[in-house]
Design brief:
The chain is mostly beta strands and 724 residues long. Among the domains are: 109 residues, no CATH class; 77 residues, Phage tail protein beta-alpha-beta fold, CATH 3.55.50; 72 residues; 61 residues, no CATH class; 112 residues, no CATH class. Helix content is 6%, strand content 39%. It is built from five helices and 50 strands. A hairpin with a 5-residue loop joins β30 and β31.
């Protein structure tokens, strides 16, 4: 017999499917657990064994009872039959509650029912975490949403839970993949140092693992047997910090190709985050829904999109007392960011550098996992430890085999940094006073990100001069000058500073580098490195230290024409090429005319009646900010000629201004336009119908010169970012 009343309720409390109390309960096994640093997300289990008979009851009810149909008796009553509810038909996922001495101690969900004998049945139930192992969460990129909002998104509306107010207000950054609800919940908890304990009513309770309160377990409720496990300490802990941001310049990638097959509605998932607005479909493929990690498509075609930029930073803590090498890594927890990485590292290091596990049996009162207790270990030594696992057997009393994590003081949960300061630089030394709030933490520290000045963009290249003609064709137009290379973003150097003995830090600009002084320590952005994806400031989403854009190339010059000899094809000169820049179209210069002009008479009949034949010179290519120049035509006569000249390429006059974000590289200058190609031309005898000669000399057949490239812009100044 049970010493205290127990009750198991299957289904809704107000209208349960089944209820079992002491006389029908044979045994109750319950296993609950937490992970101190998130190495595992436990699935709690509840396994009661109950007595239940499967038989028929007969009842005689008044005729006016409309609940049952049956046979009408002689005296006007309904003879009806009632079967017991078939316990084997309890639906999967039905809520199952356990009440001990009138207090709800747990909420579980039925997975299966096992018949162990004629009237003995065992329920196999799991916590909400176990149910979420088979449910999907679409994930997404988070940019500061509250913890309670993200938690509600993961859990859905099916499960009862409570959340500590301090946990609820944390801001979430990073990425969650398309995965099970359990896995994404695990990601959220490990990143912020949150555990799943139980509330006073047995619901899931999301709280920080904290040493703030310590409870007592009297010696009279502790069994003598037990053990202490001294695990191998880690020599090194590595935690990877993640950041995600979108750049429009990122190259588009193919996400899915139906390869000509027409698909019914299909969900396509991505293994890395894609910016939703960039997801498009070609062919007859349609998209009915899309998100960071998925798209629902139909039809045939190709699905494309642009990925978020993913940057990482490795944080390391060494254990000088370790005897052997044992490295603990946390690599794929993608909600670990600048905001919480330092706390994660401290929390995990403290656990793996010091912890022992005490296994001890107790008589259960109101103990629950996640709380800190004063205990006496099996060897009569007093210890303090977190209750991390309970295997409870409820029969005549409640006995639990327990694991206590001793010699462990968790670092603060939640974010390491909640604020940031972005400080501009001058050549004069400046000072930043460390706020009092920094020293209210157990580990007073700040994260300093030093961003240097971006490099200048390169000058755009000059356009090429047009080419000369030959016997069969005019000269080729000169190529437009290439745009100058954008300058590299400023170098970025990050350092975490212990503020224990500091009241302020000093900083200044030295030759474009950001230099920081913390007491006797000196740090410089010059010791960092530039990145093609820049540095994203977590709280604002601003991307600093991006490289500048390459300048636009100038347009090519037009080709020279050919006024042919006998048998050749005529080739008219072409206009220089146009250039669209910042939405404005700059026109190439006009090509010259095809001409035949009489020359002066000579003394011999052979040299009389000479004609110059020109195909026309090409027009000059356009450049950013200017049109190409027109080619000139042959003017004059009888030997007094102005020879035609190819159109000159335009000088570039515009360059994209530098983006005014700290550490931005300057933009490259624009290239000059290419010069127009020269015409080939002939000296032709009209009487004898013969070619005298072909001229390609510069003095009489002149290509256009290439235009000048514009200068690149200066890189933007650096800054100091402080997270605290």
């Amino acid at each position: 017999m049970f010493a205290i009343p127990n009750k198991i309720v299957i289904g809704d409390v107000e209208s349960p499917i089944l209820t079992f109390e002491n006389d029908a309960i044979k045994e109750v096994l319950e296993e609950t657990g937490i992970s101190a640093v998130g190495e595992e997300l436990y699935i709690d289990q509840f396994m009661p064994t109950v007595r239940y008979a499967l038989y028929v009851r007969y009842q005689i009810l008044p005729q006016d009872n409309n609940v049952y149909d049956g046979i009408l008796s002689a005296d006007g009553k309904i003879i009806c039959s009632k079967w017991n509810y078939d316990i084997r038909d309890v639906p999967y996922g039905t809520p199952t509650r356990f009440f001990n001495d009138g207090r709800q101690t747990g909420v579980f969900y039925c997975e299966s029912v096992t018949r162990e004998s004629g009237d003995l049945f065992k329920f196999n139930c799991v916590s909400a975490v176990g149910m979420m192992d088979n449910q999907r969460h679409v994930g997404g990129v988070y940019t500061g949403q509250r913890f309670d909002v993200v938690l509600a998104e993961i859990l859905g509306t099916e499960y009862e839970y409570e959340i500590d107010s301090e946990v609820a207000s944390q801001q979430v950054y990073g990425w969650l993949p398309y995965d099970t609800r359990r896995n994404n919940l695990h990601q959220l908890l490990i990143a912020y140092g949150v555990i799943v304990s139980k509330s006073d009513t047995g619901k899931m309770l999301f709280v920080f693992l904290s040493a703030r309160d310590t409870y007592d377990i009297p010696r009279g409720r502790i069994f003598d047997s037990g053990s202490i496990k001294y695990g191998d300490t880690a020599s090194r802990v590595e935690v990877t910090e993640h950041s995600y941001h979108y750049l429009s310049s990122t190259e588009e990638e193919t996400l899915y190709d139906t390869q000509g097959k027409s698909l019914a509605q299909t969900t396509v998932t991505f293994d890395h985050p894609i910016y939703p607005d960039s997801i498009t479909a070609s062919g007859d493929m349609t998209i009915s829904e899309k998100g960071t990690n998925y798209a629902i498509i139909q039809g045939s075609g190709i699905l494309t999109g642009k990925p978020y930029v993913h940057n990482t930073k490795l944080l390391v803590e060494e254990n000088s007392d370790a005897r052997i090498e044992k490295v603990v890594t946390v690599k794929d927890a993608t909600l670990i960011t600048t905001a919480n990485s330092e706390n994660c590292l401290a929390r995990i290091s403290s656990y793996y550098f010091n912890t022992t596990v005490v296994t001890q049996a107790i008589v259960v009162d109101e103990e629950r996992v996640g709380r800190r207790y004063n205990i006496e270990n099996p060897f009569k030594e007093k210890m303090i430890g977190f209750l991390s696992r309970m295997l409870t057997n409820t029969s005549s009393f409640r006995r639990a085999e327990c694991d206590f994590i001793a010699n462990y003081t968790p670092a603060a949960g939640g974010s390491s940094f909640a604020r940031r300061a972005v400080l501009e630089l001058t050549d004069a030394e400046q000072r930043w006073d460390i706020p009092d709030s920094v020293f209210q933490k157990d580990a007073p520290q700040i994260r300093c990100v030093l961003i240097g000045r971006g490099s200048d963009g390169a000058t755009g290249e000059d356009g090429e001069t047009g080419g000369y003609g030959n016997d069969s064709e005019g000269g080729k137009g000169g190529k437009g000058g290439k745009g100058g290379k954008g300058g590299a973003g400023g170098k970025v150097y990050s350092v975490t500073i212990d503020c224990t003995n500091l009241a302020f830090i000093r900083y200044k600009n030295i030759d474009g580098a950001t230099v920081l002084y913390a007491a006797d320590d000196i740090y410089s952005s010059a010791n960092g490195s530039a990145s093609s994806s820049g540095f994203v400031e977590l709280f604002s989403g601003a991307v600093y230290a991006l490289p500048g854009n390459d300048g636009v190339s100038g347009a090519d010059g037009g080709n020279g024409g050919c006024n042919p000899a006998i048998g050749a094809s005529p080739q008219r000169a072409t206009d220089g090429c146009d250039l669209v820049y910042n939405g404005v179209t700059y026109k190439g210069g006009k090509g010259g005319k095809m001409q035949a002009v009489r020359a002066r008479s000579y003394s011999t009949a052979y040299h009389e009646n000479m004609t110059w034949r020109f195909g026309g010179n090409g027009g000059g290519g356009a450049a950013a900010g200017a049109n190409g120049h027109d080619a000139t035509n042959l003017t004059g006569g009888n030997g007094d000629f102005e020879w035609p000249v190819g159109g000159a390429g335009a000088d570039a006059t515009e360059t994209q201004p530098t983006v005014e974000l700290y550490g931005s590289g300057g933009n490259g200058g624009s290239g000059g336009g290419g010069g127009g190609g020269a015409s080939n031309h002939y000296w032709w005898n009209d009487v004898y119908n013969v070619l005298i000669t072909t001229y390609t000399q510069e003095e009489s057949n002149i290509p256009g010169k290439g235009g000048k490239g514009s200068a690149g812009t200066a890189g933007y100044k650096g800054c100091l970012i402080i997270y605290y």
